[in-house]
Amino acid sequence: MAIGGGSAGVVGKRRHRRRPVMAEINVTPMVDVMLVLLIIFMVSAPLLTVGVPVDLPQTQAKSLDQDKEPLAVSVDEKGKVFLQNTEISVDELVAKLKAITDARGGFDERIYVRGDRKVDYGTVMKVMARLSSAGFKRVALVTEVEQGS
Predict the structure, then answer these.
(1) Hey, is 134 helix, strand or coil?
(2) Rounded to an integer, what distance in angstroms lies between the CA atom of residue 96 and that of residue 92?
(3) Is 51 contained in some domain?
(4) What are the tens digits of pLDDT across the range 52-104?
(5) C-alpha pair distances (Å), 1 with each of 5, 11, 12, 38, 57
(6) How many domains does the chain divide into?
(7) What is the H or E stretch that residue 87 is in?
(8) Distances, alpha carbon 90 to alpha carbons 12, 17, 26, 55, 94, in Å
(9) What is the mean predicted confidence (pLDDT) over 10-31?
(10) Rounded mean pLDDT of the chain?
(11) Is there a domain that residue 14 lies in?
(12) Which domain holds residue 81?
C-alpha cells in the first residue's frame, strides 16, 4: 500500500497550456477599406470641382496664380449669366459683385469671366462692359490649355 498523498488527483486531470497571446494586428481589412475609400474619393473628386458646365475655348496662355477662391462669372451656351454657381441677371451682376468685393476688401480682386465657346461674342462682351464700367480693373478671361500644338 502506497501512500500517494495528492498524486492520484493530479493523474486524473489534464493540464491545459494556454496559447501565447498574439501580439500582431491584422491590418489586411484596414488596408482593404482604405483602398475602397481611395477609389471612391478619386472618382468623386472631379465631380466636386465642376461649377456651371461651360465648354471653354483653348489657348496657349499661361495660368494665373490664385490665393483664395476666385470670383467667377460664367456665361453658358444659352447666354445665361452665373455668379459663382448661381444664375443671375446681367442687371444684378454689378451690384452683387460690389457687395462681395466690399466684404472681401475692395475692388482689387480679380474677377474671372468664363464664356462658353458656343455663346454669342456680344453676350460675353456685354458682361465685360458692365464689369469695366463698374470700376473692376482686374478682369480675366478663362480658357483651357490648347491641346496638341
Answers:
(1) coil
(2) 6
(3) no
(4) 666 666 666 666 555 567 788 888 888 888 888 888 888 888 888 888 888 87
(5) 12, 18, 19, 77, 109
(6) 1
(7) strand 86-88
(8) 97, 84, 61, 20, 8
(9) 74
(10) 77
(11) no
(12) 58-145
